[in-house]
UniProtKB/TrEMBL annotation:
Superkingdom of this protein's organism: Eukaryota
One GO-annotated biological process of the protein: L-threonine catabolic process
A Pfam match: Beta_elim_lyase
Protein name stated in the entry: Aromatic amino acid beta-eliminating lyase/threonine aldolase domain-containing protein
Cofactor: pyridoxal 5'-phosphate
Alphabetical UniProt keywords: Lyase, Pyridoxal phosphate
Family: Belongs to the threonine aldolase family.
Organism the protein comes from: Viridothelium virens
Length: 439
């Protein structure tokens, strides 16, 4: 593990710091702001430690000697500033690194770590739920939640046909829960409605049926927002029929930042919610699931059973707390939405078509309509120093102005008649299938 101070431009390991300043006691932060993440090592401030380290050379081998560290990824802008592939590529910030160096190091399996417990309490309060549980990823958050809800087959989960739990989680619902996942194509081609649910939910107790036990929604999905009022309608109907509600809210932050509804308002519609700190908020790892205390108690058990118990979880919880406070509550997401709208408008101004409306931080170029092959689009972007996977561009909060200028050049070359290395012709296919091979 690395500490935030450095010698000759390289991060210093915690064990090296301890040799200089043996830690006599553990400290943890209080309060709701990441700015309160303050501690000292035996009374020495971070700045004094850094000053001392610069003057001292530690006589031991550096395990990173064989790693090219010419690009310091803790400085901004890093490679994420030119990467439109996904919001999972956001780089952890220097303040997150500092929080890791200052975090508590107690055991989360024993439910003892103050930093982790503080984050869980903070999320529970923000969402209006009784309790929360830290997990390592959005996939783990969804899978632990569904496995906690689903007790024994036969049972099924109803979701959008594009849902992450159906297409991007390695069939986990089937293998872990023994459940049938029924993907629904929304009639409005945008989001699942109560009408869609009523038409596809299985309420029968006939022995041939596989009854719907959980309705799982996703918000945002493909960057588009599930309206709060529709979530409320579906939630009310589900309660009337004894069906549980789960939300894959990995990007719920984006819906809230877009003004579609408050975090607590959305979460009130669901029995469980999974929230991701590394998608869009910039934390290196971690998600949170929320629900009733009894649900979280069982979820902790399920988490342990699939290898999700974490010992010194403070190193995960601390940067996640910074991401929550600085990126989401600090209001950094709104600017990325404005940048996405600018990109979408320019693409359309130049004659391109969008596969989906720009509602948050994603722009879906319909490459097929423009006669552009995905591989040619990726190659052309690379020549300008941009990284893309295909027609879906994720404009996360670390995308810089220089990247948007380069993208402007790319779009004008592709749609303005010049072409890039002869890109031309007609491409058939579903515009939503844009080679997004990782998420």
């Amino acid at each position: 593990m690395l500490c935030s101070v450095s010698k000759i431009g390289r991060p210093l390991r915690v064990d090296q710091i301890r040799k200089l300043y043996p830690i006599k006691s553990r400290h943890y932060y209080h309060g709701s702001s990441a700015k309160s993440l303050v501690m000292s090592v035996n009374g020495h401030s971070s700045s004094s430690i850094e000053h001392t380290v610069k003057r001292q050379k530690l006589a031991q081998d550096d395990p990173l000697d064989d790693v090219d560290l010419s690009q310091n990824n803790w400085r901004s802008p890093g490679p994420a500033a030119f990467d439109f592939r996904s919001d999972v590529v956001t780089s952890p910030t220097a303040s997150m690194l500092t929080s890791i160096a200052q975090t508590t190091l107690l055991d989360d399996v024993f439910v003892e770590d103050p930093t982790t417990l503080s984050l869980e309490k903070r999320i529970a309060e923000l969402t209006g739920h009784e309790a929360a549980l830290l997990v390592m990823s959005g996939t783990m958050g969804n899978q632990v939640s569904l496995r906690t809800h689903l007790l024994a087959p036969p049972h099924s989960v109803l979701c959008d046909h594009r849902a992450h739990i159906l297409s991007w989680e390695a069939g986990g619902v089937a293998s872990l829960c023994g459940a049938l996942v029924k993907g629904v194509v929304p009639k409005n081609e945008h989001h699942i409605t109560l009408e869609d649910v009523e038409a596809n939910a299985v309420l029968s107790d006939d022995v041939h049926a596989c009854p719907t036990k959980v309705i799982s929604l996703e918000n945002t999905l493909g960057g588009t927002v599930a309206p709060l009022e529709e979530c409320r309608k579906i939630s009310q109907w589900a309660k009337e029929h004894g069906i549980l509600m789960h939300l894959d809210g990995a990007r719920l932050w984006e819906a809230c930042a877009a003004g579609a509804g408050g975090l607590e308002e959305y979460c009130a519609c669901f029995d469980s919610v999974s929230l991701c700190f590394s998608k869009g908020l910039g934390a290196p790892i971690g998600s949170m699931i929320i629900g009733k205390s009894s649900f979280i108690k069982r979820a902790r058990w399920i988490r342990k059973s699939i290898g999700g118990g974490t010992r010194q979880a403070g190193v995960v919880a601390a940067p996640a707390r910074v991401a929550l406070e600085e990126t989401f509550l600090g209001g950094k997401l709104a600017a990325s939405h404005e940048n996405a709208r600018r990109i979408g408008k320019l693409w359309e101004f130049l004659g391109g078509k969008l596969a989906l409306p720009v509602e948050t931080n994603m722009v879906w170029f319909n490459l097929g309509e423009a006669g552009i092959k995905v591989k040619d689009f990726v190659t052309a972007a690379e020549k300008l120093g941009l990284r893309v996977l295909g027609g879906r561009l994720v404009v996360h909060y670390q995308i810089g102005g220089e990247a948007i200028e380069k993208l402007d050049v790319l779009m004008r070359e592709l749609l303005g008649g010049k072409g890039v290395d002869g890109i031309n012709g007609t491409v058939d296919g579903d515009p939503m299938q844009t080679q997004v091979t990782v998420e």
